[in-house]
Amino acid sequence: MNLTIHQLRRFLTVAQELHFGRAAQQLHLSPSSLSEQISALERRLSRNLFRRTSRTVELTDHGRELAPQARAVVEAMDQVLTWARDDSGPAHIRVGLMVSSPGFRAILAAAAREMPDVHWEIRQLGFLGAYKALAQAEVDCIFVSEIGEAPVPEFTSIPLWEEGCALVLHEQHRLAGRSSVRLAELAGETFVTVADEAAAARWLTAVTAADTAEPRSLPVAHNFEEVVELCGAGLGVNIAGESARATYDRPGIRFVPIQDAPRATTYLYLRGDNRSAPVEDFARLALDVTRRGA
Fold first, then answer.
1. Which pTM value belongs to this model?
2. Alpha carbons 71 and 170: distance in angstroms, whole number
């Protein structure tokens, strides 16, 4: 049985507040997301931890038994994290990337100038590894580009910038010579998507026209480099933020603007708990750099 420190923190917050709305606000989650996560914890433990009615939330006997044990585990983990962030050494910030972009490079350049004592570590995490790495504290924050989707509720999300979308396709594709296209013109295309069918289905729903037939997908890519290679081989097309051209353009590939696609939003995600002061400073700097460049 595997339990995470985040599950225990969320249990303890609800146990203290005895109110899902107030607990969710503290954790920067939606009440429904927090409720589902507590239910998942109860299923994992095979024990009911709370009695819930339309008016009240109460700890069960099992919940009362778990509370001091969970508190001891969380306090021990906090001690480890405090030790790991010992101020006697330089600050260390691990930044995860789903895709690279000019906006991210501008933020990192400003951070290197304005936070010179920080040791920076950049990790390319791809489409499927970014959220997991943040949840498991393998990185301190992640930059994620999402199209037509709400922010992931498990984390604190800071929207940085929006941009239009472009169709990524082979230079010999029937639409490659166009100055722009519309979503309805993509009916019948095969889309190169992530190697997770559930995630691919959500993405396709967001980026394809509602009145077209269900699109075909090729769910094999783990990162955007793989997407570009597959599109360049003529195996399918993809939809990305327009700024992808600046980083991923190469011979044989075209980026054609899509007139009516949903906007792509780049978020900076942080864990909702136990963030260091340098990470908080970096988040503020990222937002400030974005606003100055707007």
1. 0.69
2. 55
